[in-house]
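Sequence and fold
=================
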Amino acid sequence: GSHARGHGITEIAVVVTDGRQILERWETLVDPGAPIPRHITTLTGIDDDMLAGAPAFHQIADTLREKLEGRVFVAHNVGFDHTFIRDAFEASGTPWRAAQRACSVRLARKLLPGHASYGLGNLCRDLGIENSARHRAMGDAEATATLLHLMMARPHAETIIADVIKRGSREHWLPQHVPVDDFERLPE
């Protein structure tokens, strides 16, 4: 769905990286407990038949928590992914919130200026990043990790990324096109 409240997760992928190379991959389909809307099947290719026998979120929650604990949660539009996962943990009775987050859209705007669009598909096309499974969890997670690796190779990347993480949640709840510095200059 387009927002976490009232919608569910159909697939999760975690790609663990050290900023230079992928160290670990994990993925699973997830039974959201409701029929898959047609527009989601059209977008992802995931349908009800694929999810037959898939675990419910509460069955994978402990494994997912282990994969995420102690790591920086990076996603393309991190607020979207984080909200879905946070809400799924809460619904399963085990609250979770990433200690540190970074949005690869915001990082790309800072480290890779000059693109007409910062959507994942457009950046992948512009930068030659392969994503053979667009709008699928592992395809997008691997593409985001590759994008992160390209950004980490840029001058001053570690300082810029550390600043984005340090700013905390303010960086993540603003619309992607609103620079945090512009927001911070607004009068009380």
Notes: The mean pLDDT is 90. Residues 79 and 173 are 6 Å apart (CA to CA). Residues 137-152 form the longest helix (16 residues). The first strand starts at residue 11 and ends at 17.
